[in-house]
Amino acid sequence: MIPKILLVEDDRLVREALVDTLTNDGYQVQAVSDGPDSLTLIQKELFQSVILDLNLPTMDGLEVLNRIKQIPNSPPVIILTAYGSVQNAVTAMKSGAIDFLVKPCPMKELKTLLRSVISSNKIDDAEGLKLSDSNGIIGESRVMKRVIELVKKVAPTNGDVFIYGETGTGKDLIARAIHNESIRKNKPFIKIDCAILPGELLESELFGHEAGAFTGAKERFIGKFEQAHGGTVFLMKSVI
Questions:
Q1: What whole-number percentage of the chain has pLDDT above 70?
Q2: Sequential DSSP letters for 134-190
Q3: CA pair distance 210, 216, nearest whole angstrom
């Protein structure tokens, strides 16, 4: 079955680019430019995920999200937001969005997130993760089976988890799988790449700051830990 995605984006160029990219990646995509049309479609058709822009005409994206969550068996919602509306995205996460991406979002990141969201949405049995359908993780080797077993063991806990491995081995997928199989799966999953943050900005990024706290701090910024309240924080750090 080809996964069906609903894209809600009012910018024509962005909408067409996303439709082309996701269609070429094997998804069936329906795209609309406003909230009311998206709500009509969701009540008529079955979608595996919704990609929702926050800045929409006629109906604000947050209102669209709230109405989607009132629909029985509604699909998981991924928020697209501009940098200036990240705080609105945090509000959206608290209202039930599964994750959010900041425009312009890297296509690789969007594709990875979609695979994770759709795979976890299919899992609904007592066994949890399956090797053939495990949040985008595929493998039959003894080592891969051991990884899946460990994911299932740690996911129900509140313990800290250290994931290590070479670049490209799937640490991000494992982190998302743990989140998606945990009791926090309906809460935010916040990824922080510590390697690209200068030391002087790391504290502000993690804990936030108030307007005027330092030169250039023109408005209040909600830190990543507060954004992830009740969910999962994935701290990435390259080790050489």
A1: 84
A2: BTTB---SHHHHHHHHHHHHHTTS---------TTS-HHHHHHHHHHTSTTTTS-EE
A3: 11
**C-alpha triplet 27, 32, 33: angle, nearest 5°:** 135
Please provide residue 202's backbone torsions phi and psi, each rounded to the nearest 5 degrees: -60, -45
In the prediction, which pLDDT does 129 show? 44
What is the DSSP pairing of strand 4-8 with strand 28-32?
Answer: parallel
Better-scored residue on pLDDT, 118 or 47: 47
List all residues 6 or more positions away from 98 whose beta carbon is below 8 Å from its beta carbon: 76, 77, 78, 117, 186, 189
* pLDDT value of residue 136: 62
Three-state DSSP at 93 gives helix
Token digits for 142? 């003894």
> How far is residue 38's CA from residue 50's CA, in Å, rounded to a whole number?
9
Please give the Cα distance from 153 to 174 (Å, whole number). 13
Q: Region 177-205: what's the mean pLDDT?
A: 81
Distance CA 190, CA 187 (A): 10
CA dist., res. 237 & res. 172, Å (int) = 12
- Report whether 85 contacts 15 (CB < 8 A): no
